Amino acid sequence: MAQLKRERVPIRRDWRGSALAGLIANCYLLVAPSDMHETTPSLHCTETARTFATSKEARTSEVRFREIQAACDAGRLPELRKGDVIYVDTEIYLSHGRDDFRGGLAEVIGFRMEISAGKPVPFVCVAQERDTWHNWQMLSAAQKKLRAEFGKKWAHPDPDHRPEFNEC
């Protein structure tokens, strides 16, 4: 594993003799080698920016996210599991702005079949919007568009409490 080096803080010429120079005269910087980021396993998923306890969990998250997105891009409907990350869209309301929601990445917490247009359809619930079930069949077809729109931004509530956008 790469080691950190201690280096003395350089004092600029225009600081010499100043109080600032006296303060930093005995200071050291810890300098990481330029290749350190390559040798230290990352605990962050590069696809979703989530942090995990181990680098193996982070790599597993990346692989799973890519599998889901590739299946959606190919027109397939991947089966989701709790903890999977997908994209959800923005929802803006005229009469109940307090429920406005900005789309982006979201963590799956529930999955169930519902009837839509007389047929059983998979619906998904995400941690960022626990009171809403999304039609996964429609949402999966939109993943590529949503990925382009939101990138690594996470979905979140964005309530608008102005009276004109909230009925009593």
Rounded to the nearest angstrom, the distance between the terminal CA atoms is 61 Å
Q: Helix share of residues?
A: 25-40%
Strand order of the largest sheet: 3-5-6-7
The largest sheet, given as strand count, sense and whether it forms a barrel, is: 4 strands, antiparallel
Uncertain spans, ≥5 residues at pLDDT below 50? none
- Please write the string of helix (H) and strand (E) elements: EHEHHEEEEEHHE
| Number of helices in the DSSP assignment | 5
What class would the helix/strand composition place it in?
alpha+beta
The Rg value, from CA coordinates, equals 24 Å
Would you report the number of β strands? 8
Q: Note the beta-strand portion.
A: 25-35%
Describe the 3D structure:
With 168 residues, the protein is of the alpha+beta class. The protein has two domains: 35 residues, no CATH class; 111 residues, no CATH class. The protein has a four-stranded antiparallel sheet. A two-stranded antiparallel ribbon has the order 1-2. Strands 4-8 form a two-stranded antiparallel sheet. The protein is flat, with a radius of gyration of 24 Å. The mean pLDDT is 84.
